[in-house]
Amino acid sequence: MSVRGAPRRGAVMFVALAALATVAAIAAAMLQGAITGRRHLRTERDSLQVEQLLALAARDAEARCAARQPLDEVRLVPAEAIVGAGAARITAAAAAAPGGDRVVRLVVEYPLEGPVTIRRSREIVVPSREPSPVPSPSPQDPSP
Predict the structure, then answer these.
(1) How many other C-beta atoms are found inside a 10 Å radius of the C-beta of residue 79?
(2) Neighbours of 62 (CB within 10 A)
(3) pTM confidence score
(4) Running DSSP on this structure, what letter comes out for residue 79?
(5) Residue 46 needs a FRET pair 20 to 30 A away by CA distance; which of 10, 30, 52, 133 works?
(6) Is 110 exposed, middle or buried (0-12, 13-18, 19+ CB in 10 A)?
(7) Per-residue pLDDT tens for 106-116?
(8) 82: nearest Cα among 57, 115, 61, 116
């Protein structure tokens, strides 16, 4: 009887080890999926934060231009001022454009800490606030 019982114990042990390996592989795949999903959500959150910072920087550039303040600046926004993971750097550089307007190039980098920093840029045209000259009547046009 001991000769017949030994192969069964070996078969049961093999089935148990195969089941354990299958469960471990499923658990590892679930863990990897969770880590990948979390990384994707964090990147999406940071991308949305960068877009919001770009919109804020554009509004600020227009307000500074209207107030005749200099537009060229590099601003560090601390992590406490942002709902997010780290600090941000906002760079604004202005240049003259045809027609008296100004082109402002905005660059936002966020988060400055961490393994991946997202960098986005945008150029906006800030119209000049000076009224355009009134065209003088032509001597050939009859006056009303």
Answers:
(1) 15
(2) 16
(3) 0.67
(4) G
(5) 30
(6) buried
(7) 999 999 888 88
(8) 57
3-state secondary structure 95-143: EECHHHCEEEEEEEEECCCCCCCEEEEEEEEECCCCCCCCCCCCCCCCC
Find out whether 61 and 104 touch, Cβ atoms under 8 Å.
Answer: yes
CA 85 – CA 110 distance, rounded (Å):
9
Q: Are 113 and 85 in contact (CB under 8 A)?
A: yes
d(CA 79, CA 106): 20
Residue 42 corresponds to which tokens in the numbers above? 């964090």
Dihedral sign for Cα 58, 59, 64, 66, please: positive
Closest among 75, 78, 69, 73 to 111, alpha carbons compared? 78
Per-residue pLDDT of 46-74, as tens digits, reads 899 999 999 999 999 888 888 888 888 99
Tokens 């046009």 belong to residue = 141
